[in-house]
Input
Amino acid sequence: MNQRTAVVTGASSGFGRLTAQTLAADGWRVYATMRNAATKNAAAAAALRDAGISVVELDVTDDASVDAAAKTILAEAGAVDVLVNNAGTGHFGVEEAFTPSAVEAQFATNVIGPLRVNRAFLPSMREQKRGLIVYVSSVVGRIIIPFTGIYTASKWALEALAETSSYELAPFGIDVAIVEPGAYATEIFSKVVGADDAERVAAYEGVANLQAQLNEGLAASSEGRDPQDVADAILRLANAPAGERPLRTPVPSHPAVDALNAATAPIQREVIESLGFESLLLKATV
Output
């Protein structure tokens, strides 16, 4: 049996690094992609290589970087079975205090980045008529929390792209899975991007101070949680039979998100059927 191949973006730390290591430990051939693999992230890259993982330079915000990485990986591996869109950043703060350029930067990584990476690898997946695209979203891809509007908007957009592609790719035998982590103590909290318009932040004095409660709440809710849970969930999806993978997987189970997912799934299916797109609910029809 040929060794299965996975590509993980944003693998220098956090969920991405754990996912790359977990897949490799399970026998997968893994390509861990990241920015600055020879400089800022050299230590992380070396650790992954020591674990038998191939490290490839890839910046999800750059066409040339993504195309070069995909060319290298596909030339060596021949095909990719699982693509994990994990790379992301977090912009947190008062919504009005983010300039348009800051919002564009958030969407460039969290939304356009996965779209760019998909475009590089999907032609080969469609040709082989199999594969899995995993999107690492968030529980705030389904619910709203104050002071996370820019980040939340990017995750809602990501989920819209993911679910849409799940219908469009199903006839080619390609599954789509959205993983929705809750709060975990990963490096993302030390890399949070705040609002860049200080004058607007100052205008929210008092209200903006409530963000401290959010930060405290997120820190508290992450206590006792192991980020490995997310990597394990992705591994289960990767190993699940084609056509039987759930579209959304909250990690851990979240009452509000579980309820929303359960309530909207049949409504969404009814919409698809009412438009005469029943064939897009079927697997591998072309």
User: Anything to note?
Assistant: The first helix runs from residue 14 to 25. Residues 5-281 form a domain with the Rossmann fold fold (CATH 3.40.50.720). The mean pLDDT is 93.
